[in-house]
């Protein structure tokens, strides 16, 4: 809409600055649980909610739940990415591609740091997988905000 307003006014459309992107905090296992992020939780699939709500949930099944959810959330991220990528135009696509690749590396590093305290234990994969799912949803929401 901003470009349409500028063009209607007879000016040249200048691209607005991208809103800042931020990762969630790195928490210690001793930290109190943060309040739920309703925007992220609203994006969980019903299958994931059912899966992690199982009475017989074990570490193995929890990891399976996270793995299945990550596939869905990654597909949603890629769909949002394709929309934004096409929308920005060919001149800005290389920069957006670099930014997305940098985000992927930063997300992976962030989630490794989040799971570091549980390293070597059964909680490590759950911490890492949960972080990956949540940060992927957070990025999808961010990309959707660029539409």
TrEMBL record:
<dbReference type="InterPro" id="IPR009739">
    <property type="entry name" value="LprI-like_N"/>
</dbReference>
<protein>
    <submittedName>
        <fullName>DUF1311 domain-containing protein</fullName>
    </submittedName>
</protein>
<feature type="domain" description="Lysozyme inhibitor LprI-like N-terminal">
    <location>
        <begin position="58"/>
        <end position="143"/>
    </location>
</feature>
<dbReference type="Pfam" id="PF07007">
    <property type="entry name" value="LprI"/>
</dbReference>
């Amino acid at each position: 809409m901003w470009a349409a307003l500028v063009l209607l006014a007879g000016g040249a459309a200048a691209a607005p600055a991208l809103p800042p992107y931020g990762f969630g905090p790195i928490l210690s296992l001793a930290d109190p649980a943060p309040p739920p992020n309703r925007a992220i939780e609203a994006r969980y699939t019903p299958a994931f909610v059912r899966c992690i709500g199982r009475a017989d949930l074990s570490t193995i099944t929890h990891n399976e739940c996270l793995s299945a959810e990550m596939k869905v959330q990654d597909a949603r991220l890629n769909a949002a990415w394709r929309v934004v990528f096409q929308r920005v135009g060919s001149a800005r696509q290389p920069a957006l591609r670099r930014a997305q690749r940098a985000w992927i590396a930063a997300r992976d590093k962030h989630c490794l740091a989040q799971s570091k305290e549980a390293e070597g234990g059964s909680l490590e994969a759950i911490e890492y997988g949960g972080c990956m799912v949540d940060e992927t949803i957070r990025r999808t929401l961010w990309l959707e905000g660029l539409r």
